[in-house]
Amino acid sequence: MEEEELRSELEGHHPAAYGWALHCCGRNPGDAEDVLQTAYVKILGGRARFNGGSSFRTWLFAVIRNTAADQQRSWWRRLLRESGWSAQQRGAPGDARLDAPADYVELENAMMQLSNRQREVLHLTFYQGMTVEEAAEVMSVSVGSARTHYERGKARLRSLLNGVLR
Question: Is the pTM of this model over 0.70?
Answer without folding.
Answer: no
